[in-house]
Write a structure and sequence with these properties.
six-stranded antiparallel beta sheet; 318 residues; homodimer; globular; alpha+beta; 60s Ribosomal Protein L30, Chain: A; five-stranded mixed beta sheet
């Protein structure tokens, strides 16, 4: 039996990404440990390890994560930076990576050289050793699959779970319009993530990779909903440009576009939030930090807040 | 610039797999540590770790590593077993894995379920936790990219380097004709590899994955060549069947077919070899162990030996 079907209801596209990942966990059964030791957070925490070692994996695929407009050096850099962003989201630092390639034999050698030189430049900058890999043929295809190891940068790591009702929601940087270049120009928030993990008031964190509307539910405590102030959302100039093309609102682009690679996190208490904002401005004066909302109990009205459930972030299988 | 070229001399196919991997190491430069801490052995040894942690990565790709004749459960099993064979080759045991998928949205959900259930069955058997993964779209493509972590099973790991002139060359199992089913039915030699790593007389080891003719040079000490006795090579029945189709000799198939997933290793001294053979028969009575040759100094004649340089193992990019 070959893997493909022409009958849409039988396909993974009909299932959709979210249900597919839930299914994979079910199919794996007992060999799939609960998060954060398994699938379900930005990285997995490797058990039985005093150094709190972490692992994550993300690819770049031609036609999905980059196109011909992106310089090959930037593609190689993006491959590592995507994975670094997952470590940043837990307050960790990287150690070593392996890269598996699947490529058409017609891939241009000079293109691949630039790709690896771009990857190496980012690896040097962040102290990552590229310790292994594999090369396999994939007809009409170019994909590079990186697995990254890391470890806690400080005394604790931050998980997606841990936020509580009443916590304040912050986001770094500006959101939306990533397709205009941010998706490969971004800098992973490693220093910021490690710094935030050292602040007691920060209770939970994740990176924004599929759009805030799609990602934020994972940070939201049970029995609450994230009341996001429409006026507060930091909308990037690129999101406005894209909105002018799509006819959607800039806010919609900011909440639904993928690949922001920013951090979103929950802070316990308004006073703690204000203190954190002050300390942030001293430590990261050039990087915007925005209070965008609060986790409130279900049913509680919140004037001026966005209905995230009505929006959809980036869908991986369509 | 897109990654592909129509001009063959500019392509990775023209470069070939061996030179491509050498190029990748050069392009990576300082971020690529020397083996065994980087590219060049069956696994990479992670530095600065008292547990001697290892990492390896291998995929399965539709049309390359399996076709429609292989049951999906077996494809999932093969994905993990390929990587387990790399750990076996160093005398290590597995700990945790992550799996990145690239798949066409038309992949059949029930096919993927069987794939994951087959993967889970092998993971349970060998005590592997599947701790993370990623799902990305790859049009017209199915590939699963697994990265496996492991650790030394005993006091030492075995590397590809370490053999010396005069060492005797042994191989486990039977060789060749893997395409008739062994390529997914094989059992990774984990217990055997761990046992061999505990025998002082064994100096170096690797797994046979691209054909003995292509793989053995990596085990061969500088200034020597592997004198392989044509009469001694353990030729599988499948190799004879394939040879009848191709018109090549069964010996050629045994030396050049890929995916044997057997172990080849070097033993110091003939007496030590005889003792090892006796102990092996007690411990692994059902698994063949064959003395196939010896590393001898260059220029030294060896009657009845095969000229491996005239043969080619499995070529990944053609």
């Amino acid at each position: 039996m070959h893997p493909f079907t022409k009958h849409h209801p039988d396909s993974v596209a009909a299932l959709g990404e979210t249900r597919l990942i839930a299914s994979i966990r079910r199919w794996l059964g007992g060999v799939s440990p609960p998060a954060p030791f398994g699938i379900g957070d930005d990285c997995a925490v490797l058990g039985g390890n005093p150094r709190r070692q972490l692992i994550t994996t993300d690819p770049v695929i031609y036609g999905r994560h980059f196109d011909a407009s992106v310089p090959p050096r930037a593609v190689g850099g993006k491959l590592l930076k995507r994975n670094l962003s997952d470590l940043a989201a837990m307050g960790a630092r990287p150690t070593a990576a392996v890269v598996a390639l699947a490529l058409d034999p017609r891939v241009r050698t000079s293109w691949l050289e630039d790709f690896y030189r771009g990857l190496a430049a980012v690896a040097r900058r962040y102290g990552v050793s590229v310790v292994g890999g594999d090369v396999a043929q994939g007809d009409g295809f170019f994909g590079a699959f990186l697995t990254l190891l890391g470890e806690a940068a400080g005394p604790r790591i931050l998980l997606r779970t841990g936020a509580r009702s009443g916590d304040w929601i912050y986001v770094t940087g500006m959101l939306g319009g990533s397709q205009l270049g941010h998706h490969w120009r971004f800098m992973p928030r490693l220093a910021e993530g490690a710094w935030l993990a050292r602040r007691r008031a920060v209770r939970a964190m994740m990176d924004v990779s599929d759009g805030l509307a799609k990602d934020l539910p994972a940070l939201t405590p049970a029995g609450t909903w994230p009341a996001i102030s429409a006026a507060a959302v930091p909308i990037s100039a690129a999101a406005r440009t894209v909105a002018a093309r799509t006819g959607r609102s800039p806010l919609h682009q900011a909440l639904c576009d993928g690949e922001d690679y920013e951090l979103v996190f929950a802070v316990a208490g308004r006073a703690a939030g204000t203190a954190l904002e002050r300390a942030w401005r001293r430590r990261f004066p050039r990087i915007r930090l925005t209070l965008i909302g609060r986790f409130i109990v279900a049913g509680q009205p919140a004037e001026g807040s966005v209905d995230l459930a009505a929006l959809h972030g980036y869908e991986h299988l369509r």
